[in-house]
Amino acid sequence: MTVERTRERPLTIAILALGGQGGGVLTGWLVEAAKSSGYLAQSTFVAGVAQRTGATIYCVEMFPRDRAAALGKEPVFTAYPVPGDVDLVIAGEMAETGRAIQKGFVTPNVTTLVASSHRVYSIDEKSALGDGIVDQRPVAEIASRAAKKFVCFDMQEIADETGSVISSVLLGAIAATGALPIERAAFEDAIRQAGRAVAANLEGFARGFEKGAGRAAPRAAAPLEKAMPAGPAGRALAEQIAETLPAPVAELALHGALRALDFQDIAYAHMYLDRIAEIVKRDRAAGGDEQQYALSAECARQLALQMCYEDTIRVAELKTRAERHSRIRGQLAATHDQPMYVSEYFHPRVEEVCDTLPAALAARVLGSPGMRRLFGKLFSKGRIIRTTKLSGFLMLRTLASMRRWRRGTYRFALQQQRIGDWLSCVHEALDQDYDYALSVARSIEIVKGYGDTYERGLTRYLRSIDAVRQLPPGQRAAAMQKLHNAALADEQGRAFEQTLDSLGAAA
After folding, report:
1. Quick one: what percent of the chain has pLDDT higher than 90?
2. Beta-bridge partners for 57
3. In the chain, where are the structural domains located?
4. pTM
5. For a Cys staple, 359 with which of 165, 339, 397, 410, CB 3.0–4.6 Å?
């Protein structure tokens, strides 16, 4: 296997990996494989910040040992990849692919780019008030044009399937590209010599090689958005939805009904469907079939999110589910005989504590400054609960078991009242204009989460509704959409206040 060189310089590899992805392991394998193949090799790295706010950049350079001997001098290796002189770029996920291109590491006719198509979401994406996930398709399109050769597939999925680390799958894809003058056996020997999870990593390497070479058996992709009802109750809901709701609404409604069933019980799921049926009825009367029932579909999505809110009962239930612990163990690649400790951090405010109290008692606590102070002192410090210990697990399971009494809690009553008010606003808007009703339905999206996040979203939503009602009917739909976008623009609410002021001036 040969690699053409335009000038006599070391072959340069840049690796961009997140914390925990094994960039150092991959670097070690590459250096070992290069040395065993007759090359001088050196590796360096520049550490990034925290796991997802940055990534470590590794640089590996290699030069033929016999050529160095013929020249009578050692090659001078760089400490950092030089833009324009990088032969192979390896990215641990798609955001790092874009970062590599942005830094100038990827050059047409020079660079082979190997990347995993999966995502590890950034802090900005996860903390966005709305859907902050960045579309990765433009990155892939740019990468295919920017690189001499672009190999990209979901390597994390293969690593999970084989019980290996993503580094081994990346190494297999690298070997398949032919970008390095190293035989496949040398890469495999490097994995063996490392002596850690050899069988799993060799399997991951082989799968990565097959996929990178384009010889992997094609796999039919499962429709991700397809809801899968389980059990008699779920199947009965699916049948009811198929018989009673129009096709554009049915899939979202099935997701919502199953979510309500998981959140509470079958009666709660039927409450959800009854509300959707009323919306569909009004939507149809307003000409919704010509709009593909856009209003009903939006309400189906938003109603499910509002009905399945995050109270302490729900949080405790989710954190003690068996599949969650299995998923964490799988992510850590921990075997069943290895001890694993999971620490959960709780710091509920007085309001979150009162959410799970009986409605009358919670109202007394929240209405009494003295009782608020008392509860505040009791819960002023955060709690660290280990759910892998019996005491911690039983504590949260006891809290989760309060689900059967949720209908009597303060938060349940308050939430149903707010949902009813929102639906009334949607119905009122639909009597005036379809687009206005659609924007009102979507506006509840900012009311989510818990604590200060929830309160900020609720306040902005209510102010939006009140402000738009003061405008002439023809301006309401556009104004509501502007306020919604502004509310999602920044956490501090500067854009929202500016937009609200501009609407006040217009009115």
Report:
1. 45
2. 16, 46
3. 11-212, 409-507
4. 0.68
5. 410
